[in-house]
Amino acid sequence: MALGVVGLVLALPLLFLLTRAAWITVSCYYLTPARIRTILAGQGVHGPPPRLLVGNLRDVSALVAEATAGDMSSLSHDIVGRLLPHYVLWSKMYGRLFVYWYGSEPRVCVTDAGMVRELLSSRHAHVTGKSWLQRQGAKHFIGRGLIMANGATWSHQRHVVAPAFMADRLRGRVGHMAECARQTARALREAVARAGNEVEVGAHMARLAGDIIARTEFDTSYDTGKRIFDLIEELQRLTARSSRHLWVPGSQYLPSKYRREIKRLNGELEQLLKESIERSREIADEGRTPSSACGMGLLGMLLAEMEKNKNDGELGYDAQMMIDECKTFFFAGHETSALLLTWAIMLLATNPSWQDKARAEVAGVCGGAPPTADHLPKLTVLQMVINETLRLYPPATLLPRMAFEDITLGSGPGDELRVPKGASLWIPLLAIHHDEAVWGADAHEFRPDRFAPGRPRPWAGRFLPFASGPRNCVGQAYAMVEAKVVLAVMLASFRFGISDEYRHAPVNVLTLRPRHGVPVRLLPLTPQ
Ligand code: HEM
Is the distance from CB of 140 to CB of 114 less than 8 angstroms? Predict the structure, then answer.
């Protein structure tokens, strides 16, 4: 009798837990998706029929695999069909507003300029954010860092880091950026002298962008930070592989060879970051200036915030949050910038007249000296080239937002979209940047003069390489300063032409990159 009561007491909580788990699973994987599908269908938003659990994942993978199986047959910039074939197919079949299912996550594609602006505006900043699938997919190389934070935590983190990227602080970084760029130019000259004038420029730009962020924000150098960059890249690759099965309920808890490797690499990465943070803290405690000498970099600001918030409730930075924020900025401040520089050099190498124009401007403004903060606003041709590069090859091709509450986009009957809580909205940036209805019949051509000062801007609100609104890229100004400085130094140092070995094969692996790199022929000009 006593044993029976004990058994019942033990069984009841277990039964409760099992029932709860079953309810959550049914709710996440069936009831909520069914509710969302009904609400969207009621407004005429349809899409390809999803399969149970996987949704349209397999269709997306098959379409992308087929479209990117080979290289492009010409050096065309008409790349939307290659990189977003599912968007092209389904928007033709179901209209520009359609829904597809990424596992059990519904993704509504939104391209309407008014709806996009509204979605990214401050009105929805606190009720939209990054979904569980996304956060889980980036857990190991971003963690709770700014890119994946939501709600009040995001707001607090953004408030802490934003001052590091304000205009007055950026002025102090220009000299460091120019010095890093000149070192790269020297390394490229040596490479040309040693091994001939063919160079794969993507690897050099990745190293340069890494050196710049490591020096200006983390008081270290690329060589010291190299292992950190390598680990983040490897973690990105492994996480992409292990995330392929996240749609399986509970799969995040199952052991796998990827997960074991991720755990090991993440342990090493976090240890390196802890040591780097500790070193900076000691330097600060001793009152010595950080080696970068460019004022307080991001790491210094994060440390100050951590000190300030030692006793500050749940929003304060704890040690793990510091580590996650460092990972985030090593990742976000490196790859996107390197890709912008690489694509810009590819476009200049294949458009010699624009290369000459930009070089003449740099010579006129900088007069053979390294670029300074005062030179940068005068480099308008270079700004146009950079904008056109970001339009044709935006490093981030999609902007995702999940609705955490029911929201409404658009205005008035027939022009309104009710977005149910739990639905994700995906803005296909690349498709908007190549839309002939917005940019004209030459939308796929490299025409930097469309960004010339004083020209009409029919594309206003449709040029979004850094997103827009309160959750736009916090490093936008930094990235633009960096791109101008590096390209000015490169243009003054070399004439570049595209190599016969270049194979045009843009692919989207989290960011838009050239699958085989960008080999160019470099002709050194007078050294600076
Ligand atoms: C050409 C270079 C860059 C491009 C095209 C770019 C693009 C973007 C885009 C589109 C977003 C919005 C992502 C989303 O909402 O899902 C974003 C966010 C972000 N970017 Fe950049 N980025 C660049 C460079 C940088 C740099 C240099 C840094 C740091 C130094 C940086 C740090 C961040 C961070 C932390 C966020 C998250 C902001 C937030 O959620 O509040 N980015 N970036």
Answer: no
Residue 359 Cβ < 6 Å to ligand 1: no
Per-residue pLDDT reduced to its tens digit, 191-210: 999 988 999 999 999 999 99
Calculate how far, in angstroms, residue 476's C-alpha sits from the geometric centre of ligand 1: 7
129 lines ligand 1 (CB under 6 A): no
Percent helix, strand, coil in the chain, to 5, is 60, 10, 30
Is the shortest distance between the CB of 473 and ligand 1 below 6 Å? Answer: yes
Residue 418's H or E segment, with its range, is strand 416-419
**473 annotated binding-site participant:** yes
Interacting residues of 481 by C-beta distance below 8 A, sequence separation 6+: 170, 173, 174, 177, 376
Instruction: Establish whether residue 205 lines the binding site of ligand 1, counting it when its CB lies within 6 angstroms of any ligand atom.
Output: no
Domain-by-domain residue ranges, the chain? Answer: 27-140+397-458
Question: Token digits for 501?
Answer: 């070995």
Pocket test for ligand 1, best of 336, 341, 398, 512 (most atoms within 8 A of CB): 336
ipTM over 0.85: yes
Ligand 1 midpoint to CA 368 (Å): 32
- Using DSSP's 3-state secondary structure scheme, residue 521 falls into strand
pLDDT surpassing 60 at residue 417: yes
- Would you say the CB of residue 514 lies under 6 angstroms from ligand 1? no
The amino acid present at 250, given as its one-letter code, is G
447-455 long-range Cβ contacts below 8 angstroms, 24+ apart: 447/388, 448/354, 448/381, 448/384, 448/385, 448/387, 448/388, 449/384, 450/388, 451/383, 451/384, 451/387, 451/388, 452/380, 452/384, 453/380
Q: Which of 131, 144, 473 gets mutated to test ligand 1 (max ligand atoms within 8 A of its CB)?
A: 473
- The model's pTM is 0.92
C-alpha of residue 472 to centroid of ligand 1, in Å: 7
- Is residue 499 within 8 Å of residue 519, measured between CB atoms? yes
Give whole-number Cα distances, 336 to 146, 330, 513, in Å.
Answer: 16, 11, 9
* Residue 246 clears pLDDT 70, i.e. is over it: no
Tokens (6 digits) for 148: 């994946």
The CA 465 to ligand 1 mean position distance, Å, reads 9
* Any ligand 1 atom below 6 A from CB of 337: yes
Q: How many angstroms separate the first and last alpha carbons of the chain?
A: 92
**Ligand 1 pocket, residue 493 CB under 6 Å:** no
Tell me the pLDDT tens digit for each residue of 469-492: 999 999 999 999 999 999 999 999
Task: Give a three-class secondary structure readout of 79-103.
Answer: CHHHHCHHHHHHHHHHCCCEEEEEC
Report the distance separating Cα 204 and Cα 345, nearest Å. 12
